[in-house]
Specification:
15 helices; 8-stranded antiparallel beta sheet; globular
Length: 539
């Protein structure tokens, strides 16, 4: 591919610079036998984990080990670790916490795997999706990505429990979803040229072939006339093909900075109209399955894959389909083992709740019955939701970064009982603008959850947006509160106090992501024992 070949040399330079300081950079991190992993976010979630305090990290990691896991997966948001690509800048606090987690995991005998390049964080109000789009056409952004990958690998390589990582198609897919909206005019042709789509087609298709594939029929007289087709066009299969090649090339470049890096590939295909426009055809992503020189293919697997929306799946049906689909991956990845980085025996992700679901009473049976399939096809698995979490949009919710992200009046962060807490003086208040970060605000009930502590009776007033959305609580000693605010829209959360009070662990949410292993407070749920059984069987 001609898209970005010159970046391969750039990546080699970057990796060479890092190798001057880290002699082992060109050596792959070692996998700890069969991977049994839990994605670790402490008492937060992936979008704000890195700016939280995680007061109970040692106890949490010890519990993960006691539950039979031998590895944790850390999701590494690109922007929060590297806020700027021009000039290149890095967040010291994020890397400090990464060191903290690596050391704590090592003490518990846990290996650590990185998910590189997560899209979502609350570091700034502006979304970070644009970076993943600009990777196709911006030298500065591509340079930033490679430097970020090298820096993360260098950090992990300092620790003997580091076992590599993977990137994932999920973090790059927004552009593939949106590219079909450019239309057929000059801006679409300009985009097709800038991202290398025209060059890609020129290397693989004649103009005559393109004129037949594009529907309705067109008559391109040059490759410079080719535009990005719409998602409802048969020709959009060409864009999916191009994008798969782009992801494979990006992975190959990144592997020079992050040796052994794999990629979570997309098992479920995409639908486009067939050539005659009378039906639909499936576009598979098999060309990505080999994952370059990685030793394994990473994969998100859900029991909903290949099944109609709303369908209830029985355990024997789930096993049969899973075996068929894992065999399909092996048939197209050169026979490499599969690492299922997200083993979704249940999935209640917001906006995907209509997906097919395993019968709830069969979830434990599914987990306990997995060893045969996993031994046959995989070198490991990871659980996404080890501990239930809220979709909390609050940045610096545990005041690990002092008052950063908060508007503060007559208040300051203090250390109390070994934890950073916000002390509000009589008549003081704190607030944060958050409403633009959270969806479903008119369809879900909103909640505010927090811990408060005082040496005597204090009234705390909590506001969520409008004056109508105010509630008061009486605090006397350490207490945890959960307040329901209905479904009215809001853009900020505010706390006021009529006396001295300490606040911590502030959560605003309208959805709880459930995994049926441990609840938001870490208490055991119904699938935890079957999961321990699975972990034990895979030792």
């Amino acid at each position: 591919m001609k898209m970005r070949k010159y970046y391969r040399g750039l990546c080699g330079i970057l990796a060479g610079c890092l190798m001057a300081f880290v002699p082992s950079l060109n050596v792959r991190a070692e996998m700890p036998g069969y991977i049994r992993a839990a994605t670790y976010t402490s008492d937060a979630w992936v979008a704000n984990f890195w700016n939280t305090e995680s007061d109970h990290m040692e106890e949490e990691l010890a519990q993960i080990a006691a539950d039979g896991f031998n590895t944790i997966i850390l999701v590494i948001p690109w922007r929060e670790f590297q806020p700027s690509v021009m000039p290149l800048t890095y967040n010291p606090y994020a890397f400090e916490k990464l060191d903290q987690v690596m050391e704590a995991a090592q003490k518990q005998g846990l290996s650590v795997m990185f998910r590189l390049g997560y899209t979502w964080d609350y570091y700034e109000d502006e979304g970070s999706v644009y970076r993943f789009r600009e990777l196709l056409r911006s030298d500065a952004v591509r340079n930033g990505w490679l430097a970020y990958a090298g820096r993360i690998y260098e950090t992990g390589s300092r620790y003997s429990n580091f076992c590599g990582g993977f990137m994932t198609w999920e973090d790059f897919w927004n552009y593939a979803e949106d590219a079909g909206n450019f239309g057929r005019r000059d801006n679409s042709r300009k985009e097709a040229k800038q991202i290398g789509f025209q060059d890609y087609l020129k290397e693989r298709y004649t103009l005559s072939e393109l004129n037949e594939i594009f529907q309705p029929a067109v008559a391109f007289s040059s490759y410079e006339e080719v535009y990005i087709p719409g998602r409802s066009d048969h020709a959009y299969r060409l864009f999916y093909e191009f994008y798969d090649a782009y992801l494979s090339e990006l992975l190959a470049d990144t592997q020079k900075c992050f040796p052994g890096l794999s990629m979570e590939v997309r098992l479920d295909g995409d639908q486009v109209p067939d050539a005659d426009g009378e039906g639909m055809m499936r576009v598979n992503h098999y060309d990505t399955f080999a994952c370059g020189d990685a030793d394994y293919t990473a994969l998100m697997y859900s029991v909903s894959m290949g099944r109609a929306a709303g369908q209830t799946v029985l355990v024997h049906e789930a096993f049969r389909t899973m075996g068929e689909q894992l065999a399909q991956v092996k048939a197209h990845n050169g026979g490499k083992p599969i690492m299922i980085d997200q083993l979704l025996y249940m999935d209640e992700t917001e906006d995907f709740q209509s997906n097919a679901r395993l019968l709830e009473s069969h979830r434990g049976l599914f987990l306990m019955g997995l060893p045969e399939l996993l031994h046959q096809y995989t070198n490991g698995y990871g659980i996404w939701t080890y501990r239930n979490y809220t979709n909390n949009p609050v940045y610096n919710s545990q005041f690990a970064l002092g008052s950063r992200g908060w508007e503060v009046s007559e208040a300051a962060v203090q250390t109390r009982n070994g934890s950073s807490q916000m002390m509000i003086l009589p008549g003081g208040k704190i607030s944060q603008k958050i409403g633009h970060r959270i969806g479903g605000r008119n369809t879900h009930d909103n909640y505010v959850r927090f811990t408060a502590d005082s040496d005597g009776p204090v009234t705390v007033t909590v506001s969520l947006g409008t004056q109508k959305q105010k509630q008061q609580v009486s605090v006397d000693g350490e207490q945890q509160f959960t307040l329901e605010f209905g479904r009215d829209g809001y853009y900020s959360v505010e706390f006021e106090a009529d006396g001295e009070v300490y606040l911590d662990n502030i959560q605003v949410y309208n959805f709880i992501q459930a995994g049926q292993l441990r609840d938001v407070d870490g208490r055991e749920l119904s699938c935890m024992e079957p999961m321990r059984h699975l972990n034990g069987a895979m030792k």
